[in-house]
Amino acid sequence: MWSGATRAVLFAAAASVGRGFAGRRRELLSLRADIERAGLDTLAGRKAARSRVLLIAGRPGWGRTALAEELARRLADDYPDGVLSARLTTSAGAPVPTERTARELLGRLGVSAPPGADEDDLSEALRAALDGKRVLLLLDDVAGAEQVDALLPDEPDCLVVAVSRGPLTGVPDVRPCTVGGLDVSAAVGLLAQYTGPTRITCDPVAAQSLVEECAGQPAALVLVGGWLAARPRRRSPTPWPGCANCRRTRATSTTAPAR
Ligand SMILES: Nc1ncnc2c1ncn2[C@@H]1O[C@H](COP(=O)(O)OP(=O)(O)O)[C@@H](O)[C@H]1O
Ligand SMILES: [Mg+2]
Hints:
By secondary structure, the chain is an alpha/beta fold. The chain has 2 domains: 25-178, P-loop containing nucleotide triphosphate hydrolases (Rossmann fold, 3-Layer(aba) Sandwich); 183-252. 46% of the residues lie in helices and 10% in strands. The chain is built from 12 helices and 5 strands. It has helices at 4-15, 25-36, 40-43, 64-75, 98-108, 119-130, 145-151, 184-195, 197-201, 204-213, 218-229, 244-252, and strands at residues 52-57, 83-87, 136-142, 159-164, 176-178. A 5-stranded parallel sheet has the order 2-3-4-1-5, with helices on both faces. It binds adenosine-5'-diphosphate and magnesium ion. Residues 21-24, 60-66, 190, 218-219, 222 line the site of adenosine-5'-diphosphate (ADP).
């Protein structure tokens, strides 16, 4: 039987449906704190020469992009010259050449790329365009440290938020924020965004086992939630025994549990 506290957490999570982004309080706090951290330059008594790089690392499907975008939304007011984003791996899995990314970013800054420019010229033009500006640069799916290095502004008032699978050890002075599963409350909240709150509040046992089986992985929860949403009469694996709605659903269910 569920303790009152556990049920209260699950009910609160289900009630928070529709808010979009779920959880990640600890990660957001630690990423924000990283912006203010004294870097190696400051510790050595020098003025920082380049932008701070915040790194969100982890395997695909664990909500790295969602976290980076949420962070960018929350920080946008601090970067009045804009939030620019670029994906550094193609959908086929190949690294995007710096030349292409620099051209795209220059275009979004309203700067024309110098005619006949090579990769170094374009990186330099991007740095010049960012000089004196406060821009947040979100670099998603970074394939290697050299991609970040080539695009890194020489402007301490800009901020780079990078997303990658690994720790990008080639970028100096970076402390990766490694993402794992969502906590139970956030994971149930995300599931409820798809199933609606009723199925969760009347069957919290099943909701908790589902999020545990998914290890709180957002991509898995989105898939399971979508699957359940498409089957409104399907019962969950371990229905809440006291719920009249679940008893009705059990009586009408003809299919296997939603596992
Ligand atoms: N904290 C979250 N709150 C709500 N939805 C999330 C959260 N994290 C991830 N998602 C959703 O889960 C799916 C996978 O997340 P995504 O950020 O694309 O993973 P990754 O970038 O690590 O591959 C997306 O549909 C995304 O919207
Ligand atoms: Mg992603």
